[in-house]
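Form 12-C: Joint structure prediction
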Amino acid sequence: MVDGVKTSACSGSVAETVERFRSHFLSRIRGAKFELPLLPEAANRVMQVAGDENADARKLAEVIRSDASLAGHVLRIANSAIYAPTTPIVSLQQAISRLGMNKIREIALVIATQTKVFKVAGYDAQVRAIFKHSIAAAAYSQEIARLRRWNVEDAFLTGLLHDTGKPVLLQLLVEVQKELKLGVEVGIVDDLLEQMHAGVGSRLVESWKLPERLAETIAYHHRPHEAPTTTQAAMTLNLADELAHLAVGPREVTEESLRTHPMLEPLNVYRDELDGLLKHKEMVKSMAEAVL
Amino acid sequence: MSDTYKGSERRNREIERFEIIVIGSGPAGHKATIQAAKAGKRVLLIERETDVGGACVHRGTIPSKTLRETALAFTAFDAKTSGMFPVALREDLEVASLMTRMEDVIRAHERFMSEQLRRNGARKIHGRARFLDARTVEIETVQGERRRASGDVIVIATGSRPRTPADVPVDHDKILDSDSLLSMTWLPRSLVVLGAGVIACEYATIFAALGTKVTMVDKGPRPLGFLDSEIVDLFVTAFTRAGGIYLGGRKHAKVAWDGVEHVVTTLDDGTELRSDRLLCCLGRVANVDGLDLAAAGLAVNDRGVIPVDANCRTSVPHIYAVGDVIGPPSLASSSMEQGRRAVCDALGIELSHGSETIPAGIYTIPEMSQVGLTDLETIKKYGGCLVGRARFEELARGQISAIQDGLLKLVADPGGKHVLGIQIVGEGACELIHVGQMALINDFGVDGFVDNIFNFPTLAEAYRVAALDIVKQRNKLFPVADATPAVGTPAVAVEPAPHKPS
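Section 2 - Result
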């Protein structure tokens, strides 16, 4: 892989190189050649079965069993501390009963995307951190939704998928670096990821035929007030994102900074309610760790 | 000047003074604030939510009525076109798409209420109030800042929220209450409703009309125990025809999510119900947590509500409580009047004697409404009664509009002269009731409905038909018109005619 830590400009100044890289990268994203990854087959089937009114836990178990890695993950999560089983869960059917069809669908989605699509050579640790963060954001997002009596299921899903644009961009970065035969500093990579992940993630979610409102929420999670129809959901995700950074990183966030978070007022989250959310930190941590 | 005095001055400066403080901006608090502002008083309104309007605007009345309009349009289209254009909802229909107008309706209402406050010069603070003593409240903002305000008069209008019994694990996802019900993504295929009060019945019939298989469970033999039983029986008939099931005389023993796809409700008779979602509607509790009523010298009674007198004054003379926080009737309409009355009483503004004829409007499908006495209450009070009935399907307007299950009951004194109560089931009931309410308040009399002309074809004609029904019975009982006894005179007890379902 290209060493992404140091800029190794072939010619001209660093600034010119960065600009060349940036414009090439942007043209790739905007161009017809940029293909979004397909939803992995296993996740696709799990989502179909979980959404089918005639399907039962047995049928879902069969689908999960067909993907060894997925099956292993589901069992591990069902046995994790968050669900605290009194007796060990050994069968997928048991796991499905414990977690619920919808939860399995969500887990399948994230695990399948993680294991099949988003293997970015050289960026393993970063991708893992993104997923860990996404699980924590999902957990917090659903707790905020519960508090405000908004849709809990949507909140969980948007939390889970809000940063899926990042691994896609990382993959593209690797390709562009190869094409241009240059390495780019970590700072520049992070900047590009921060700038573009919401838009790319939203396109990805849309291409997977998930509801439009989820795509909009993800697109606007860093500027929720601009969301045309999903302001509340985007604000929820924005706060959940920050809480997830506090719980599992990767960005360092302090409790003090959260207490003055700009979303607290529009979401009407009072001090004691924020304290309640902060109390979930350990639970959220163990949930995120169980998935990875 | 002593140090103590200076210290006290400083504290006083920190406390902002108002003539009236209102806590809560729902129907009761909003009207109290407007009344105070109109009287030229310096008034402060404290609201814990971002927007004004309370649960009525944001979680209850307005959202549910908006969904109801969609359900009604859907069912009415089929009935009015005699099924010529078969309509069916998509199986994967999202609840939000049935309520596309809701946000607009809420925003418009909220804007109107805010504008009214602004126009009348009322001050509003977004925060939570807590009594420090009988005259002072502390306001905590979302940012955690605290400030103090004192009021010569304080009105508590903090409303209520759904009660969650310990044995119903409400998670606002699969097992919901009326605050979270409309946040559902998909229209559920099946819904179990615990409880059979107003909110339970409204949602049960709305979802049944939208094609959800609804099962209502309640300990009462029939829903809505406070309403006329004949009216309720017709309502149950309509609900059953829409595919709903009412399981009376039963209670939940256990409610749990099966972890896969159903909420499993086990009843005390062993019946097991499996549904996509469950709605818990087992009463409401007053929002008094965090108010620290004790600091103001107040306490709730054994029903968990703040006791008040006829003008909503609490045991502390300058503190009033209005709306859901004082218990039944807990209607938006009566709450508004309580808010107005409380402030008028506090300011010494003359009040007409409180009207006891508060109508109850229930926005089920079909609607129900009643005002005044029922037949049983009249018999108990006057020893008898005459009841006139008009069925909507016998009216030209009823036929034209394809209204089924419509009935208007006019309850008169034993002599059949004075109107004492009206009960209506059928579309338009909540509007139609007001004709009867005015007749009742002004003692218009049964004959007034017969001697005056109504538009044709209208549902209001039902009043005339029902009045004629009473006149017919009266003529039979008292062949000489002048011999009819007056109200209160012991007369021949006439049992209400047993209801014969048509």
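Section 3 - Comments
The longest helix of chain B spans residues 61-80. The two ends of chain B are 85 Å apart (CA to CA).
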